[in-house]
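User: I'm putting together notes for a lab meeting next week and I want to include a structural view of one of the chains we've been expressing. I don't have a solved structure, so I'd like a prediction I can at least talk through. The sequence is below, exactly as it appears in our construct file.
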Amino acid sequence: MTTVAAYAAPAAKAPLERTTIERREVGEFDVLIDIKFAGICHSDIHQAREGWGEAIFPMVPGHEIAGIVTEVGSGVTKFQLGDRAGVGCMVDSCRECENCKAGLEQYCVKGNIQTYNGIGVDGTPTYGGYSTHIVVDENYTLRIPEGISLDEAAPLLCAGITTYSPLKHWNAGPGKKVAVLGMGGLGHMGVKIAHALGAEVTVLSQSLRKKDDGLKMGADHYYATSDPKTFQELAGTFDIILSTVSAPLDFGAYLSLLKSDGALVNVGAPEEPISLNLFTLIMGRKTLAGSGIGGIQETQEMLDFCAEHGLGAEIELITASEINDAYERVLASDVRYRFVIDTATI
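Assistant: Thanks for the context. Below is the predicted structure for the 346-residue chain, given as structure tokens.
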């Protein structure tokens, strides 16, 4: 075991503080990554505050990890010393179920092993990217292409793949009208990716205060959802609505914006259950769907796609001592558009 520095929540809702954790020795198929940058995802806050249910403490959040490979196991073939590497939301899965064999490890029937707030194959808790180093099996480690800087690449390991996967699955592209609901850490990547895929992109945001940003990132249109006229004007418009918000919504109102056979796909996860009048689905053969992250192969495809199109996250780089303030600012929607921790400050 190797002791490394980290920032952890000692208990639910407690402020994060500097501490040390143990990382396993590098095994035959493992890589050791010297973490350079770690993104802050809203799901880090949900889990550190037990918004999604009981969690494991102390918790070291962080599943948007970018760094450099500094050691490889004897059986590793995919990475060499000095390679740029990333780790997303999972670090292992059963590898044997139908989904794992199909490259859908994110939907592993037995449940994938989360990068943090999970239990590893050795029975010990997993700790995430708010730390200086991490040891990960090479099969769950991503190559970060040269075309993206490491700090802007880190959020792609969650925000990038969480938007890329459903946009690809529901065939966003030329001739399709895509709305991105919410212009935050996930939403801004959804806009960039949907635009790069060739879709006509509309942002639906509470207000117009981020309109200039949205248009610069590739949106063709920008509407305020606080304006009732928006729902009249856009009724029956979209093939796909990608909802990135984690607040409860009037789903009936948003389903009314879909064309027949359109899909409202949720990647943001409210903590509360929702209610729905099923006629909003029945009339128009509409789909209310959800999507998780992507499998390892698709995540690599997303990174290569982003490098090819010059897409990185819009980030605000912070020091580790600013993590707790950053959490409050995320909750206040006061970030453009992703906080990234410079892990050299841990």
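A couple of points you could mention at the meeting. The chain has a mean pLDDT of 96. The first strand starts at residue 2 and ends at 8.

User: Perfect, that's what I needed.
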